[in-house]
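quick one, 302 residues, struct below
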Amino acid sequence: MSTILAEAVSSNPPVAERKALVGLIGSGIQRSLTPAMQEEEARQQGLRLHYQLIDLDRTGSGVEALPALIQSARTMGFTGLNITYPCKQAVLPLLDELSEEARAMGAVNTVVNQGGRLVGHNTDGSGWAWGFRRALPGADLSRVALLGAGGAGSAIAHALLRLGAARLTIVDSDAARAAQLAEALNALYGPRRAAFGSDIAAAMADATGLVHATPTGMDKLPGMPLPASLLRPDLWVSEVVYFPLETELLRTARALGCPVCDGGTMAVGQAVGAFELFTGLKADPERVEAHFRRLIDERAGR
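---
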């Protein structure tokens, strides 16, 4: 660990000499491509960056481990951290400051160490929007169903309304969480633009598009997040899961002829935003995405 710590940024030397220590806190993250994306983009820009996975599943712990992990990151001089499931909301009270974006969304996926102060940001919403616009330009946003009101779902809900969604229905297993998110959205973006419910069938009945923002479909949680019978060919489908890239939801939607957006686009978009927050350098989105797709092909043996 001493070698890694020696590489942490403690000053602001010329870019060619700069070093950074960052990490990802979450559960079941061993197959994450974020380390490879961040390290390769840093290498391309002459920055030496080490990206450490901090997997709660490896120690059998949960969000209760967050306070100690955040304090350790302070002590060890981490440049920053990415935060993922299930910690995006639990980390909020442990930080010194929140960006306006993170405060509005009630979730953090990126933490930046600014002179010892840990500042929480959220690049999930902007990252999802970046990928969505590329994959599904001109998508009908008149009536959108959002499945999941957690950290990713909250960020995407804000992004959808900013993109012009006229009506957003949020469905979550925790009805109170969905109701709270809808209330916050309506306060920010105007009354009656967001609603909540516990019946996914009702939300899908007249929806023009579906965004799936729960962990269902991940390698560790395989399956469909909703009955396949609720999908229609005239419905676009956006997925946040990217392990595997082709989830059962996307396979089913493609077979029906639905326009789809895979979770890789959001993974790239949020990584680009986080890289710029960590380093102060402008990332090349096309280069990051090309690297991401190559990594996916390598893992699939293509």
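Residues 137-258 form a domain with the Rossmann fold fold (CATH 3.40.50.720).
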